[in-house]
Amino acid sequence: MNSSGTSSRSTGAWPICGGIFDLEVKEERLRVIEAEMGTPSFWDDGRRAQELTRERSELARTVARFRELMTQAEELGVLLELAGETGDESVTPEIEEGVSRVRQALDDFELKIMLGGAHDAKDAIVSIHPGAGGTESQDWAQILMRMYLRWCERAGFTAEVVDLQPGEEAGIKSATITVKGESAYGYLKGEIGVHRLVRISPFDAQKRRHTSFASVSVIPEVEDVEVAVRDDEIRVDVFRSSGPGGQGVNTADSAVRITHLPTGIVVQCQNERSQLRNRDTAMRILKARRGKEGDRLRQPDPLVHVPPLPARQGPPHRCGGGQRGGGDRRGPRALRQGLPPLGPGASGVSEQAPGREVHRRQKLETLRERGVDPFGTRYPVTHWAGPLAARLGGAGEDELKGFGPVCVAGRIVSMRHHGKTCFAHLQDYTGRIQLYARADQLGDDFAHFTDVDLGDFVGVTGDMLRTRTGELTIAVKSFTFLGKSLRPLPEKWHGLKDVETRYRRRYVDLIVNPASRAVFLLRSRLIKAIREFLDARGFLEVETPMMQPIPGGAAARPFVTHHNALDVDLYLRIAPELYLKRLVVAGYDRVYELNRTFRNEGMSTQHNPEFTMLEFYQAYADVGDLMELTETLLLHLAQTLLGRTRMTYQEHELDLTPPWRRLPFFAALTQALGAEVGPETPGRRLRELGAARGVELAAAAERWEAWPELFESLVEPTLVQPTFVVDFPVELSPLSKRKRDDPRLVDRFELFVAQGEIANAYTELNDPIEQRERFLQQAARREGGDDEAHWFDEDFIRALEYGMPPTAGEGIGIDRLVMLLTNQPSIREVILFPHLRPEAGLAPEDAEPDSGGAEPAPGDP
């Protein structure tokens, strides 16, 4: 505002252009995102598509608010100019007040954008600890605490000291403060770090500088649904209070210290006389720290709530516990990505309230009264939505008119009323297509058409046309009701977001989430492509028993069942390997099986108790042949399914172009440990080298026990681009053939991509005498308490004694491969019906949370 009380109408006079309010940049970004969302391949990368969708929504809201503030600013500018021209100064104070409000709104909006992180809007927990420096640092920590408390008071936040440990002479040893108020964490997060105070004591004749340190950490408070902490993960200790609230007045042990065993996080509270309140406060702080820091190695899955896996346990297609020391594993291990923690946006099912279901049941009765079967019968479908849209995507008006009537059937997933016309979208398993209904065309049936609920199935007959926006549309001439949906679909804008609900109700997830459907369509195409690839190379697909008298082929805990007629225990297979090799003995030189395999081990975002594997065996070949075959197979799958050989997995940019790197096992360990190691390096030396690199091994760990621990901790995180790890020690591979030039090693490789194992292969041991000796060694381990050691299979030895040709075999985890090609961080995203903990019972009124959807309840306008 200038000195005359007027302001230019130019928006440049307002702080809404450039910098954080750079509207042109934001609008250009919106156009780029919307253009990308319109491409057919947008959902090929589901993770990126979801991120762009969220970014577009946030940008759209921001631009709309910018526009609103700009309009207010321009209107005030016009009023000021008119007041100046007429000389009417009576309205100037009111206009100036409006200007002040708009400026304040701009400041508030700018701050809101700046505090726009995932946790910035939450309450905060501030911890203060003195550094080195004794009493002076403890004094400085106490001064900092008072400064933060005073700032909270002036800023309008509510601050409470929940834990305070006084210093021995003065100051404090530690303090924990909860700060409540909108965006408390956003305001305070910049305070994280070491705070230094430099001063000169007036009593020091030499005027020396004294420096005191104190560290400040700020973490956001989280909801219980965001971070799950199980009772078996914590140790709760109670002790006598010594801080404020407990000194001299509290004779009971009320202070509480909670230790989170998997991560070593320790929190305590002692300000309340109530042990229960102290424990609740400590749990809040613990969950906040867990939500901020996370378990960087193997975070338990909150959907499963089972104990985390031991450090050496692999994914479900590999053995657990001592698996590396106990035997070969045919499937790959997990891609090292966890499921992101649930945030405030993951608000649940976002479905309608139970009252909506009552309304739908009333409509069902109305249909019956009209003589309409609410659950339909046969309908003559002539076209499917996806192929129809592809066929007529570029058709002109004349071609559409001459195409003739079509009959389609599917679920109504959207509907928009416009008086005597109505637009809707019909979805079948191939895609969606728009419907256009008119009252003058349908007559009395128009009211019945508009009374259809979202989720209902209909059959439609009509002619093809294209709307002014260019969308291919069916002009409805007649329709048939085919199936009533008694439960509403998730509301359009919020959708089905809760991860656990998506897994439990996959049938709903697949209806409303195109990204989920795309994942499983690609999975089906991948399996088909694998079959075609192997069939074309002379491999024969076979089936082997899923229930076996001896679980062999891997070192893992099996599921046990009982056959009543035979009165014997049987085991669900942990691998099909030994049966497939029996078929090679029988003369089938190239065999493969796409099999379901079961392992009774831990569950997480990377582990499911049943999973899909590909195992194949080729006679007269070795691992060198299978390396070339694996490179060709994965390259073929990427080109066939994605149309490219370069791809993104999480934060990694991958290139599948062969040849891939070959890395010897002990060369990798030598490089990681910074010292030469080999098959004969003693366990004591390995333990010392591991400790120097931060890997703590068991005090009595033998060589074969240390190797997998060190490799998994130090080498695997470095294997991003496709890498064949070769030349494994014989102790880790009881079914592999020894190398001719070094009998301490075996002909074996593991393929790693994006820090996870994708394939495992080796030249098969076909010497029955040596195989018997290795089985006996495994049996000795079982007798010593290793319940995951390989079982002794006498019949397999007998089969080898009939003679097996030189053979190479390989296992590939299909679930891991789909995760890689679809850029999914969790195995549950690529399994249609993953195993979860039993669902807790819900009261009927809590079963379907209300999302504020668009579907009206009875009596709603």
Structural notes for this entry:
With about 850 residues, the chain is α+β, with helices and mostly antiparallel strands. Helices cover about 35% and strands about 20% of the residues. The chain is built from 23 helices and 26 strands. The two termini are about 45 Å apart.
Itemize the secondary structure elements and their pairings.
Elements: H1 23-37, H2 46-86, H3 92-114, E1 124-130, H4 135-155, E2 158-166, E3 172-180, H5 184-188, E4 193-200, E5 209-220, E6 234-239, E7 255-260, E8 265-269, H6 275-293, H7 323-326, H8 354-369, H9 385-391, H10 397-402, E9 406-418, E10 421-428, E11 431-438, H11 439-442, H12 445-450, E12 457-466, E13 472-483, H13 499-504, H14 506-512, H15 514-535, E14 540-541, E15 547-548, E16 560-563, E17 568-572, H16 577-585, E18 590-598, E19 610-619, H17 623-641, E20 646-649, E21 652-655, E22 661-664, H18 665-673, H19 683-692, H20 703-715, E23 723-729, E24 745-753, E25 756-763, H21 768-783, H22 794-801, E26 807-813, H23 814-822
Parallel strand pairs: 11-13, 14-18, 22-23
Antiparallel strand pairs: 1-3, 1-5, 2-3, 4-5, 6-7, 7-8, 9-10, 9-12, 10-11, 12-13, 15-17, 16-17, 18-19, 19-26, 20-21, 23-24, 24-25, 25-26
Helix pairs in contact: 1-2, 2-3, 2-15, 14-15, 15-17, 18-20, 19-20, 21-22
Compute the gyration radius: what is it?
A: 34 Å
Characterize the overall form: flat
Distance linking N and C termini: 47 Å
Binned, the helix content reads 25-40%
Our count of helices gives 23
Q: Spans with pLDDT under 50 lasting ≥5 residues?
A: 1-19, 243-251, 293-353, 842-861
Number of beta strands: 26
Structural class: alpha+beta
Main β-sheet, spatial strand arrangement: 14-18-19-26-25-24-23-22
